[in-house]
Design brief:
Length: about 500
């Protein structure tokens, strides 16, 4: 048959099967055949994948790139409250460095955030701004969610519709915490009800803003302000209360919601219970909650590297519950929540803080978020599949097929004829030499990784996007600007299992 690339003899994984010794033929960026001993014309490039898993390219449905670059003017009018750093301090990943890092870790599509700030009445200029930042600068395909901080009349009555119909953006995110972004329940209800009509999926950051604020003030009064106390200020019940409230608001409006970055057993149980009652409640967790435990020392500043919200938890019970939730279908997606800033700032600051002024070392001024777009797939493959906690099929479900379906990426997320040829080829497991990760091996623009020293038991060998090899044997070989913006379909209600 006619093809321009054929992958030979891999163990091809879908959500339901593993087909051993299977070929994939690709033509013009699309998968045209999957089968045994596919005959192709002479001279077609062949990649030998014998002994290796071949999985659909990773879809990372929660990535922040150029987070604080857009809407810079609007942002200056918003006081920093721990949710967002000062503009001068931004040292995160751009579309160039973030998507380069994504492909080096086997991810072929990222869904990133366009952020509306309080001062913006409309969403449209915000979306246009992010289009400018991403266009021509991405190594992998990308789509946008929109963060809504000002549900103005214009947003509710016009912009959400325009966003879906003209821009192909079919998900929003709302915050229940951070003064600069948090919405009152009243406004979340307004948004959920509009979202329901338009086929938009609403992502919710569930932490109780007042409870966190109250905790922070009490910790500050006692002088307990090192990074360690970030976790103390946001205990599991703060997440659980907001999770339950978000489920209630969704139920009241009959609107689908996705609880993002779920970090605890208590929240996972509330979500599971809602799903058992057939509510359209979906959930995401992240590798950092599955694999890291809070072991910060109480005095030092090194812990700032691990400050994210919700915080890294202290209990293995939480981790076990999250792994269980992956296996029983509570979680539809495992995303990185890549939201990094450098530890050492070029201007001599540490994670957004004035180095010389100990008063400014207060945890609440540390921007919240970790790097993880490149490590997401390999760390889950190592600690999930190779370690025997999840099957290869379940790995594919939560890292690719699940997020593609949830977010309306209709040509992404599986290996079947007619789908985009987005494919990750792993190393043959038998011969792979496990190694300890160091940050120098990664392709992001960040000066640390929370997975430093972790033992990796496999790593993507090839990343292929729309039939083009973009990462091969440790090297990014794709071109900046190859990544395309992907318009998405409306959210369709699906069962989680
Ligand atoms: N929430 C996110 O989703 N990402 C980074 C910070 C945050 O609070
Ligand atoms: Zn969040
Ligand atoms: Zn106060
Ligand atoms: Zn995030």
């Amino acid at each position: 048959m006619n093809a321009d690339l054929v992958i030979r003899n891999g163990s091809v994984v879908t959500t339901s099967d593993i087909w051993p010794c299977c070929d994939i033929a690709i033509l013009n960026g699309t998968i045209v055949a999957v089968g045994i001993n596919i005959p192709v014309n002479k001279g077609v490039r062949e990649i030998e994948a014998g002994g290796a898993y071949v999985t659909p390219g990773g879809v990372d449905s929660h990535v922040h790139l150029s987070l604080y670059e857009a809407s810079a003017d609007a942002l200056k009018t918003v006081p920093t409250d721990g949710g967002i750093p000062n503009m001068d301090d931004y040292t995160g990943d751009t579309y160039e460095t973030g998507t380069r890092s994504a492909v080096a870790g086997g991810t072929t599509t990222v869904i990133t955030f366009a952020s509306q700030y309080r001062g913006d009445d409309s969403l449209i200029p915000v979306i246009e701004e992010y289009h400018k930042l991403a266009a021509g600068s991405s190594y992998c395909d990308y789509a946008f969610h929109v963060i809504i901080s000002n549900p103005s009349q214009m947003v509710l009555e016009q912009d959400l519709k325009t966003m879906v119909e003209n821009y192909g953006i079919t998900s929003i995110k709302v915050y229940m915490t951070y003064n600069a972004m948090a919405l009152k329940d009243y406004h979340i209800l307004d948004l959920l009800s509009a979202a329901r009509e338009l086929g938009i999926l609403t992502m919710v950051h569930a932490e109780n803003a007042d409870a966190v604020h109250w905790m922070i003030e009490r910790l500050e009064a006692k002088g307990l302000t090192t990074p360690y106390y970030h976790g103390t200020s946001r205990p599991p019940i703060v997440e659980a209360e907001a999770t339950y409230r978000a489920i209630t608001l969704g139920q009241l409006t009959d609107a689908p919601i996705l609880l993002v970055h779920v970090s605890t057993k208590s929240s996972a149980e509330l979500i599971r219970n809602a799903q058992t009652n057939l509510l359209p409640v979906y959930a995401e967790t992240c590798p950092q909650f599955l694999l890291l435990l809070d072991s910060m020392d109480k005095e030092g500043f090194e812990g700032a590297k691990y400050v994210c919200s919700p915080p890294i938890r202290e209990s293995v019970t939480d981790q076990n519950s999250l792994w269980q939730g992956i296996n029983n279908g509570t979680f539809s997606t495992i995303a990185s929540d890549h939201a990094p800033v450098k530890f050492y700032h070029p201007k001599g600051k540490l994670r957004g803080l004035a180095n010389k002024d100990p008063a400014q070392r207060n945890f609440q001024y540390i921007p919240k978020g970790l790097p993880g777009v490149e490590t997401r797939l390999p760390v889950l493959f190592s600690e999930g599949v190779v370690a025997g906690r999840i099957t290869p099929q379940r790995f594919v479900e939560v890292t690719s097929t699940g997020p593609a379906r949830l977010f309306g990426l209709k040509r992404k997320g599986t290996i079947a004829p007619g789908f985009d040829a987005d494919i990750t080829i792993w190393h043959p497991q038998e011969t792979f030499q496990s190694f300890k990760l160091t940050n120098e091996m990664l392709h992001h623009a960040i000066d640390y990784t929370p997975f430093e020293g972790f033992e990796f038991k496999n790593w993507p060998r090839y990343t292929i996007i729309r039939g083009k090899v973009v990462f091969q044997e440790g090297e990014v070989v794709g071109e900046i600007g190859y990544g395309q913006f992907i318009k998405r379909e409306k959210h369709l209600r699906t069962s989680t299992l």
